[in-house]
């Protein structure tokens, strides 16, 4: 029996028994009194564009936490109020302002690093905690009211950089690709920081257009240029449709070496789309040449919290959970913990203070805790794309590092 089938069987059995057996409130399934006063939580996510799929995952993760607890957090009935994130600082600020008028106790979500940077001052001035579940640029410093349950964007590059330094010869050429913008710059900086210890990256990064709908030729020119230098490996930072198109075009241009990337490359529906290639070409090339990613989560992690979360997610949404959904689920979890600590009628400022006191979090990713920069100190995992049954899957190979 493959792992995916096993998780599907767990989902078919339901999650009530598993959750009740854990008993700590982390996996409570709604047996709360609901005696607390109603609260509102503002959810900032994109409803369209290239990041919509990530926004949907974030929404699903938070809603799943509420569903397993009778639509309550810490005994309070919860209304989740969505607001359109957009792609710019201006659209992000408009979302924050609208949610503040709704008198929300806390904010969550945010996919785009540009939006997160743009709303920083608005959140800090409002003194309402934001538990971000995706965007976490390295430039976001000195905040008091912004917490993240994801990671700092340098970390996936750093985790892979140390791994590649040990795996590859010092003379190896690594072709580096990513989209233009702060996100890819952070990832590449993390790679450089960990890899260049006694050696150096010989190739300059190639940053490509950040297109919502990349054409079948968008990456062909930059790829040909890089392949002309005969790289031994490719490192790249893409997600969603960009990830699918980049990998397909990389193979179409004749590359037959290993690919390394932050796990966003193969999250969500990307593997399904790569599995749909003509006569299975992309699947065969991935299996023959290797595609390995670093991420803070995989749906096949074997711990109690993940067995509950992953089986419930599959049963509810008929798909495997991603790191985006997991981080949003954890955002609801830490908000639950903080509100319990803050008391019966908490203010946003009391909740924010309590977030610094919650200690270790028993998460589907494994145990983690907030560090001084309000981001998780957590494990990073090496995942390899392999056939699991009849489908391509991200399979955890080992732990890479603890960062944060």
| Quaternary structure annotation | single chain
- Total of DSSP H or I helical runs spanning 4+ residues: 14
**Total strand count, please?**
14
Q: Summarize the helix and strand pattern as letters.
A: HHEHEEHEHEEHEHEHEHEHHEHHHEEE
Radius of gyration: 21 Å
Instruction: Give the amount of beta strand, in percent.
Output: 15-25%
Binned, the helix content reads: 40-55%
What summary fits the major beta sheet? 8 strands, mixed
> Which stretches are poorly predicted, pLDDT < 50 over at least 5 residues?
1-32
Measure the end-to-end span: 36 Å
Organism: Micromonospora echinospora (Micromonospora purpurea)
Pfam family, one: Peripla_BP_6
Keywords: Signal
Family: Belongs to the leucine-binding protein family.
Show the helix and strand layout.
Blueprint: H1 3-13, H2 16-22, E1 39-45, H3 52-67, E2 72-73, E3 76-84, H4 89-101, E4 106-109, H5 113-126, E5 130-132, E6 146-148, H6 154-167, E7 174-179, H7 182-195, E8 206-208, H8 220-227, E9 233-237, H9 240-252, E10 259-262, H10 270-274, H11 281-289, E11 291-295, H12 304-317, H13 323-342, H14 348-355, E12 369-370, E13 376-388, E14 391-403
Parallel strand pairs: 1-3, 1-4, 4-5, 5-6, 7-8, 7-9, 9-10, 10-11
Antiparallel strand pairs: 2-3, 11-13, 12-13, 13-14
